[in-house]
Amino acid sequence: MRLGQDELNYRPETLAVRAGQQRSQFGEHSEALYLTSSFVFKNAAHAARRFSGEEEGNVYARFSNPTVTMFEDRLAALEGAENCVATASGMSAIMATVLAHLKHGDHIVASNGLFGATVQLFSNILSRTGITTTFVPQTDPAAWEAAIRPETKMFFLETPSNPLTEIADIRALTAVAHAKGILVAVDNCFCTPILQRPLELGADLVVHSATKFLDGQGRVLGGAVCGSKQLTEEVFKYLRTAGPTLSAFNAWVLLKGLETLKLRVEAQSASAAQVAAWLENHPKVARVFYPGLPSHPQYELAKTQQKSGGAIVAFTVKGARNEAWQVVDNCQLLSITANLGDTKTTITHPASTTHGRISPEARAAAGIGEGLLRIAVGLEAFEDIVTDLDRGLVKIVG
Ligand SMILES: *Cc1c(COP(=O)(O)O)cnc(C)c1O
């Protein structure tokens, strides 16, 4: 059951705990987990009506499941979207978005700062189906416009970018795309709808890795695509046939994750702003990349489209790989892992992990230096996070 017009005026914290809930005949207060792969019908005619789509309702869990529907409706309400379809992972959300709307011969313009697996998907897998991609700088709308071809069907972007937190101007890129009838898809993983609502800025589709902030506690994989009924219906048609749908169990975990999304994202983002300011004043830190700092080249633009700087901070130490690894290796509290969006703060050395398979030249061109570190700030006390970072930082000579 979708929310009525009045309920859509509820604020995000209300939507996060209330939107999308459907109670069964038992009147459970907390959303139920429907672990069932299929659904039964009253009689043959009922089955026929459900299968033909003449009557709405559940048929088989690859098509829909009540727990998954509750998650979809709650996330749609938070993104301000007409509809949402859930997927097994963030990557399957991206795959489904592209394959639902593009075909052999079509072309994507994408930012060169995308999540690593998205770059691999576009460059090595979708390219085999005849869908090609041109990668352009995140921050330069003119480069996006110049990359458009007659067969361009989609702009795909992710803002802020990982790990350098470069901002793509969603309004400007949408204007360029829509003038040519091109769809705009935004990966909103870093900000979540709590900090940024791309559909309100003009984008057509929002994709999520629900694995990150939406779960927020590092438990399950999941993904989602939000947008108009018409555009997400195409994604749904792909999913119900191709199969990468969200499991009911994961949907239930994510539904509970959404309830605390606003509290977590706001607290983590406030703490990240403090960590970024602390790093900027540290004598062993060369540069900090954080959209909430006035020193960020796109600080003003970021303020027009996201509510705060978010929970991801990148910085370069004075030195190279040895110095960066020293900071990682001296951490006692921070988790050494590439995941992000968790309640537990994580630290990553992108050049040797997430961006390790890219050639050193391409890494250098993308600005991913050997001294760069990325932290995804969690819910620990700010003081404890910076004490942990300082253990390795103070040992840097020079
Ligand atoms: C993690 C991530 C993905 C992929 O999501 P999975 O759930 O791991 O498949 C896509 N985009 C961004 C920005 C991510 O951080």
Q: What are the salient characteristics of this protein?
A:
binds pyridoxal-5'-phosphate, Aspartate Aminotransferase, domain 1, alpha/beta, single chain, 398 residues, 12 strands, Aspartate Aminotransferase, domain 2, 15 helices, globular
Characterization of this structure:
- The chain is α/β, with parallel strands linked by helices.
- The chain has two domains: 7-259, Aspartate Aminotransferase, domain 2 (3-Layer(aba) Sandwich), CATH 3.40.640.10; 262-393, Alpha-Beta Complex (Aspartate Aminotransferase, domain 1).
- It contains 15 helices and twelve strands.
- The chain has helices spanning 12-18, 44-52, 66-79, 90-101, 116-125, 141-147, 170-178, 192-195, 229-242, 248-259, 261-280, 299-305, 321-329, 360-365, 382-393; strands spanning 83-87, 107-111, 132-136, 152-158, 183-187, 205-209, 223-227, 285-289, 312-317, 335-336, 346-348, 372-376.
- The strands form two sheets. Strands 1-7-6-5-4-2-3 form a seven-stranded mixed β-sheet, sandwiched between helices. Strands 8-9-12-11-10 form a five-stranded mixed β-sheet.
- Helix 7 links the parallel strand 4 (152-158) and strand 5 (183-187).
- Helix 1 packs antiparallel against helix 3 (66-79), helix 4 packs across helix 9 (229-242) and helix 13 (321-329) crosses helix 15 (382-393).
- The longest helix has 20 residues, at 261-280.
- The mean pLDDT is 95.
- Pyridoxal-5'-phosphate is lined by residues 89-91, 115, 117-118, 158, 162, 187, 189, 209, 211-212, 221, 223.
- Residues 89-91, 115, 117-118, 158, 162, 187, 189, 209, 211-212, 221, 223 line the site of pyridoxal-5'-phosphate (PLP).
